[in-house]
Structures are given as C-alpha cells and as structure tokens.
Amino acid sequence: MLKLAVRIQQNRKIRIALVFCAGAVCAVGAFYLYHHNPYSYPLPCIFHLLTGLYCPGCGAGRACYSLLHLRFKDALSYNPLMTLLIPLICLYIMVRVIDWMITGGNHVDGKISVKLLVWILVLVFIYGALRNIPVFPFTLLAPGGLAQIW
Question: How far is CA 88 from CA 36, 53, 95, 120, in A?
C-alpha cells in the first residue's frame, strides 16, 4: 500500500487520472442532485431525527439543489450559512486538487490562517445554536425560514 502511495506521489499522469475520475464522480453526483427533487424525496438528517433540533447543515441538500438550479433566493432560505460557505469550500477543494495534481504536494493549507478556520468553526457552532431558538428573528435561520419574509 505504501508503494502505491509513493508511486501516485511521483507520477503526475496517475494523479491527473485520479483527479479526472474524482471529477467525473462529482459530476455524476451533481447530475443526480440536479434531477433528484429533495422536496419529494428528502434526505433525512440523523441529528434532527434523534434530537428534533436543526444541525448547522440542515437544509444544505435543498440549498445545493436550489444552487444547481440557479435559485439563489431559495438556497438562502434553506440554509443561509451553507449557501455562502459552499462556493468557498468548492474553491478550496479545486485549488487544493489542482495543486496536488501538478506538484504532488500540499502548498495550499499552509497559506490558510488557522485563526480564520477557528472563526469559521465558531460561526458554524453559533449558527447551529441560534437556528434552534424558536423566537423571531432566529426562526429565519431554520430551513425555509427566510421564505417567510420573501
């Protein structure tokens, strides 16, 4: 197994092939989500089923579906935080994959501030707590909450 990892690390053609295969899998996933209506067949959130509370990711599937259909207002109403973070996460993954594909190393992670990552993590936890407070304006953060005012 270690020999395979070293071979992948040293061979750019193998890395490029792996990236294209992973991209194809992502494209198939996006195609499926584009044609799979989460309103008719929702994917249940285990955290919500067990606790009755919304996790920070609740509504992210419907938000991704709405983003793929270019309905930004709907995406914001299902999960405002993830609607803003998903493009940033995708950008990070693309830059990281391109760096690995070209160099075989990781030159991206060292350039990201740890303080920024901690702030984002704190923001996600605070968002997860606030969206479960059953009082206006916090109810706007629940899935579909912003649709109340639009």
Answer: 24, 26, 11, 11
- Per the CB < 8 A criterion, the answer to whether 77 and 146 are in contact is yes
Could you read off the pLDDT of 102-115 as tens digits, one per residue? Answer: 888 888 888 888 99
Domain count for the chain, please give it.
1
Residue 7 in domain: no
Yes or no: say if 54 and 142 are a contact pair by the CB < 8 Å rule: yes
Write out the residue range of the structural domain in which residue 26 sits: 14-148
pTM: 0.78
Q: Are 144 and 77 within 8 A, CB to CB?
A: yes
Strands (DSSP E) found in the chain: none
Classify residue 72: in a domain, yes or no: yes
Residue 59 region by backbone torsions, left for phi larger than 0, else alpha for psi between -120 and 50, else beta? left
Residue at 8 is within a domain: no
Residue 68 falls inside a structural domain:
yes
